[in-house]
C-alpha cells in the first residue's frame, strides 16, 4: 500500500537525536533520516520530503557552514520544501542567518517534542497554501486570452491546450457541443490567439437566416440580382478577408448551399449572387454545430466531402454537467457581473443555492445557468441567492445527490467498517487506513460517527 503521509527528513549527526525524532514523528509522518549532508541530498532526491529538520552544526568541526550549505542545496532542488533548523543555545545568530537564506523557522535545543510538532504543522500548512496558490496562478495563466471562458476542470484544461495548439495554424476548425456550451467563445479564443487576431471576426448564424437570404448573406449580391436587390451587398465571406469567418449552426445549411460552401473552402474564391467575376479571398473558417454531423452524413442530409473539409481539426466542448465544479466558478463569475450591473454587489450564494447548482443537470448548459442567475439577481429579495431564487428547488436536490454527498458517505462507510474490524481501536484503525490518529479523530468528529450506530 502506498504511504500517502507527508514526509519528514531528519538530518543530524547524532544518532540519539535522529532516533528520538523518528520515534516521536513516525506515527504521523513518513520519516527519512540522514547523518550527513550528502546522504540527506540523496534521500531528498529519491523521496521528496515536505519538511526537513536540519541540525545547523552537522559535525563537531564544521560549524554552521555544512548545515547552511545543505539548506541551500535542498532549496535549489525543491523550492517548496520547508526547512526547520535545529540549533544549540549559542547558535541563534546562525539560525537567523539560515532563516534569511530561506529556512522556514528554527528551533533551539533541547527539543520539546510537542512544540516542534506545532512548528512542523505550521510548515506543512504554509506549504499546502503555497502549492494551492501556485496551482491557481497556473490556472489563471492558462486562461489568459480565453475571454469569457471560465473553468478549470480536467476537460476544460485539455480544451485550453487544444486551442493553444490549433490557433496558430490556418486549418479549418469544427467546434462541436450541446447548445449553450459556449462554442462562439471558443471560436473567439482561437481568433484572439491566432495571427489573425487584429483582423475581422465575422459571424454567420446559419440556422437563424431564411434559406432564401442565406446565399446572399454569405456571398453577397450585385445590384439587380433579384427583386429588392437595389444595391450591391458585400457578403460575410468577403467581409472576413484576412480574418476568420465563424459559421455557427453549420449543420443547418441547406444542401444547395453546402456545395457552394465546399467550393469556397477549397479555393477561397466566391462569386456574388448575380455576379460574373470570381473574387479571391483569404479567409480562415471556424464552424460550430450541436448536430451529430457524422450521422447527418449517413442520412444524406449533410455532404460527406464538406464534413471532412470542415473537420480538419475538431474541438469538442463538454456539457456543463461533465465539468466537475466549473458550474460554481461560472455561476460566481456571472453573479458578480449581473449583480454589479443591477447595483446589487452584496449578493452571494446561499448554501442551498450552491447545492442546487451542483445537483442540477443543466440541459441548457451555460446559457441556462446565465439566464437563471440574471432572473435571480433581479427578483431575489434577500442578499443570499437560495435554491428557490434560482428556480431549482425541490426535485433537483431531492431527486439527486451531489458528488460531494456521495464521496462523504463513502468515507463514512469506509471508516465505520474499519473501526468495526478493529473493535474501535483508534491506533489499529488509523494504521489500516494509512492516516494519523489525529486525522482519524477529526474525521470521526466531522462526520459524527458514533460507536454502535
Structural description of this entry:
By secondary structure, the chain is an alpha/beta fold. It has four domains: 7-137, Response regulator (Rossmann fold, 3-Layer(aba) Sandwich), CATH 3.40.50.2300; 154-318, Rossmann fold (3-Layer(aba) Sandwich), CATH 3.40.50; 321-399, Helicase, Ruva Protein, domain 3; 403-446. It contains 19 helices and 16 strands. The strands form five sheets. The protein has a five-stranded parallel sheet, sandwiched between helices. Strands 7-10-13-6-14 form a five-stranded parallel sheet. Strands 8-9 form a two-stranded antiparallel sheet. Strand 3, helix 3 (65-77) and strand 4 form a beta-alpha-beta unit. The radius of gyration is 32 Å and the shape is elongated. Residues 394-400 have low confidence and may be disordered.
Summarize this structure as a short list of keywords or feature phrases.
453 residues; alpha/beta; Rossmann fold; Helicase, Ruva Protein, domain 3; 4 domains; 5-stranded parallel β-sheet; 16 strands; 48% helix
Low-confidence stretches: 394-400
What about the largest sheet?
5 strands, parallel
Tell me the CATH superfamily of the largest domain.
Answer: P-loop containing nucleotide triphosphate hydrolases
Distance between the termini: 29 Å
Number of contiguous helices:
19
CATH topology of the largest domain: Rossmann fold
CATH architecture type of the largest domain: 3-Layer(aba) Sandwich
Main CATH class of the largest domain: Alpha Beta
Structural class: alpha/beta
Shape: elongated
Helix content: 40-55%
- Could you tell me the number of beta strands? 16
Q: Major sheet: order of its strands?
A: 2-1-3-4-5
Mean pLDDT: 86
- Residue fraction in strands: 5-15%
Q: Tell me the radius of gyration.
A: 32 Å
Amino acid at each position: 500500500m502506498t504511504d500517502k503521509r507527508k514526509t519528514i527528513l531528519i538530518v543530524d549527526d547524532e544518532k540519539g537525536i535522529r532516533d528520538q525524532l523518528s520515534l516521536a514523528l513516525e506515527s504521523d509522518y513518513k520519516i527519512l533520516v540522514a547523518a550527513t549532508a550528502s546522504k540527506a541530498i540523496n534521500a531528498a532526491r529519491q523521496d521528496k520530503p515536505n519538511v526537513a529538520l536540519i541540525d545547523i552544526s552537522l559535525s563537531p568541526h564544521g560549524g554552521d557552514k555544512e548545515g547552511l550549505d545543505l539548506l541551500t542545496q535542498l532549496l535549489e532542488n525543491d523550492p517548496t520544501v520547508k526547512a526547520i533548523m535545529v540549533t544549540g543555545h549559542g547558535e541563534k545568530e546562525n539560525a537567523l542567518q539560515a532563516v534569511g537564506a530561506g529556512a522556514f523557522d528554527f528551533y533551539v535545543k533541547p527539543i520539546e517534542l510537542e512544540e516542534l510538532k506545532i512548528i512542523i504543522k505550521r510548515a506543512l500548512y504554509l506549504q499546502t497554501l503555497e502549492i494551492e496558490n501556485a496551482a491557481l496562478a497556473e490556472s489563471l495563466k492558462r486562461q489568459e486570452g480565453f475571454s469569457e471562458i471560465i473553468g478549470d476542470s480536467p476537460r476544460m484544461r485539455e480544451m485550453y491546450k487544444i486551442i493553444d495548439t490549433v490557433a496558430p495554424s490556418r486549418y479549418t476548425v469544427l467546434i462541436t457541443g450541446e447548445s449553450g456550451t459556449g462554442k462562439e467563445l471558443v471560436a473567439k479564443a482561437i481568433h484572439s490567439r491566432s495571427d489573425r487576431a487584429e483582423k475581422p471576426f465575422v459571424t454567420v448564424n446559419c440556422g437563424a437566416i431564411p434559406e432564401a437570404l442565406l446565399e446572399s448573406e454569405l456571398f453577397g449580391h450585385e445590384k439587380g440580382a433579384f427583386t429588392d436587390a437595389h444595391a450591391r451587398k458585400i457578403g460575410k465571406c468577403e467581409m472576413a478577408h484576412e480574418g476568420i469567418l465563424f459559421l455557427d449552426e453549420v449543420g443547418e445549411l441547406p444542401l444547395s448551399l453546402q456545395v457552394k460552401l465546399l467550393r469556397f473552402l477549397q479555393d477561397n474564391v466566391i462569386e456574388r449572387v448575380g455576379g460574373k467575376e470570381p473574387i479571391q479571398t483569404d479567409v480562415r473558417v471556424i464552424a460550430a454545430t450541436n448536430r451529430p454531423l457524422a450521422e447527418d452524413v449517413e442520412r444524406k442530409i449533410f455532404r460527406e466531402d464538406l464534413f471532412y473539409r470542415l473537420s480538419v481539426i475538431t474541438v469538442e466542448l463538454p456539457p456543463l454537467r461533465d465539468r466537475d465544479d466549473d458550474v460554481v466558478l461560472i455561476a460566481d463569475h456571472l453573479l458578480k457581473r449581473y449583480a454589479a450591473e443591477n447595483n446589487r454587489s452584496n449578493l452571494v450564494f446561499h448554501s442551498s443555492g450552491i447545492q442546487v447548482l451542483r445537483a442540477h443537470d443543466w440541459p441548457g448548459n451555460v446559457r441556462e445557468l446565465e439566464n437563471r442567475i440574471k432572473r435571480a439577481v433581479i427578483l431575489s429579495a434577500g442578499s443570499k441567492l437560495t435554491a428557490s431564487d434560482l428556480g431549482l428547488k425541490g426535485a433537483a436536490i431531492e431527486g439527486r445527490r451531489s458528488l460531494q454527498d456521495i464521496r462523504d458517505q463513502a468515507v463514512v462507510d469506509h471508516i465505520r467498517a474499519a473501526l468495526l474490524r478493529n473493535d474501535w481501536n483508534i491506533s489499529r484503525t488509523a494504521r489500516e487506513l494509512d492516516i494519523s490518529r489525529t486525522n482519524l479523530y477529526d474525521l470521526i468528529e466531522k462526520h459524527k460517527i458514533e460507536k454502535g450506530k
